[in-house]
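Quick start: what a row looks like.
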Amino acid sequence: MMMAWLWLVIAGLFEVVWASTMKLSVGFTRMNFTLLTILGMLASFILLSRATKTLSLSIAYPVWTGIGAVGAILVGVIVFGDRLSLMTWVFVVMLLISIIGIKVTTGH
C-alpha cells in the first residue's frame, strides 16, 4: 500500500513538471519543452495507473490533481512570478489540507 502512495506522489510531481514545461513550450512551439511536456505527461499517467492498481480511483485521482494544482501554483509564484491575493492563498492552504485529509481518512 505504501508503494502505491509513493507512486501517487511522484505522479503528482510529474503533473507539476508537465504543466510547467507546457507553459515553457509557448503553445508547443519550443520543441525541447514540448518533448519534456509529453514525457512528463506519460510519466504522470503511468505512475497514476500504477497507484490505482491498489488505491481506489476516488482517492487517487483527487490527491493526484491536488498535488498537481498546489505544485503548479507554487511553480507559478516562484518561477513565473505570479501574484496571488491573500484570499487565494487561503484557498490554496484549504486545498492542501483537503489533500492531507483525504490521505489521513482513507486508513491506508
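That is the whole record. The chain has one domain: 2-105. Residues 2-105 form one domain.
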